[in-house]
Amino acid sequence: MQQSIRLSLSLAGTAALALASIPFGIGSATAQEAKTTQGTAADLGVMSISLKDAIQPNFGFQGALQGAGTPNQAGIGGFLPLVTGDNSVFFLDAQANVNFADYNNYSSIINTTVAGTTISTSSRLGYRFLNSDRSWMFGVNAGYDSRPMATGAADTGVNVRNSSTVFYQQVAAGLEAVSNTWNFNAYALIPVGTSEYRLNSNYFGGALDTYGLDVGYSITPDFKASVGYYYQQGDLGTADSSGVNGRVSYNISNGLTAGVNLSYDQAFETRFSADLKYRFGSNGYGAPSKKKAWQTPVIQALTETVKHRDVRVHDTLILTWTLKLI
To answer: How far apart are CA 26 and CA 50, in angstroms?
Structure first.
């Protein structure tokens, strides 16, 4: 646990230094490019926006197919601004999801299939603010996630008995930086409480510490892509490995976004997933007024849903788990 905390603090510190340097490096170059190709912030009307008008509560639904240690799920979520300043917002972002069974007898956690139905929760408190010319949004957030997990048969052909339902928890933290072209997201997911359970007669399962950094690029205002690196550890060392991920997303219409994700690491190997999210009530998503300046990526980022909030689980043979203890 001490090693996990030291690693998370080290990554958070590195990410913070990187984000702090953005306005003097990438930020200045991007601002100059925005000046020459799209006009200044004043030309776009961004400086005249009142954040108290632009930042409103939004809510809706989200769903995702199973991925590397994450379940098939669908639920509701919302963003609630608690305190809105002239250039900043303090907020609560919360979700509740129904978790469904793995599909096609294909385990999302390696060996044991996840059975339905349980309800997971996720909450984030955060603070986001704009720089002086509103060309970048910076943010920090932290919160708590829970995941009850029901288990079923193994997809390895092994007959298992005494399948159980277990309960995982984690705390999480993140740093964000978003311009009209680039976005950066550093995150840490750290299990708390009991993180290892016996799932059935043959397998143990553990929640994973995950630390990562994503770098994204807006190909168009509606079409975005990102690549990332992450390090995961847990399940008594059987899942320890580095991984890479990629994502593309498209804003189909106001508030409706679809995305596809691809990841690879030694524990889960190649995993593909897809997701769909709908939010209305903010930035013109169902609101009575639709000002174009409100729909720039930087302004939209102030009320964007926080990413990376699933409790990720990996399982291993009891024999392997016992040998690791020895």
So the answer is: 26
Domain ranges in the chain?
Answer: 2-325
Answer yes or no: are the C-beta atoms of 67 and 273 closer than 8 Å: yes
Category of 45 on φ-ψ map: left (φ > 0), alpha (ψ -120 to 50) or beta: left
Among all chains, which residue has been given the structure tokens 């994450």? 70
pLDDT tens digits, residue range 196-233? Answer: 999 999 999 999 999 999 999 999 988 999 999 999 99
Distance (Å, whole) CA 188 – CA 232: 10
Cβ–Cβ < 8 Å for 208, 168: no
What's the Rg (C-alpha) of the chain?
21
How many angstroms separate the CA atoms of 161 and 153, rounded? 8
Fold of 2-325: Porin (2.40.160)
Token couple for 55? 């930042």
Given a contact cutoff of 8 angstroms between Cβ atoms, the answer to whether 46 and 293 are in contact is yes
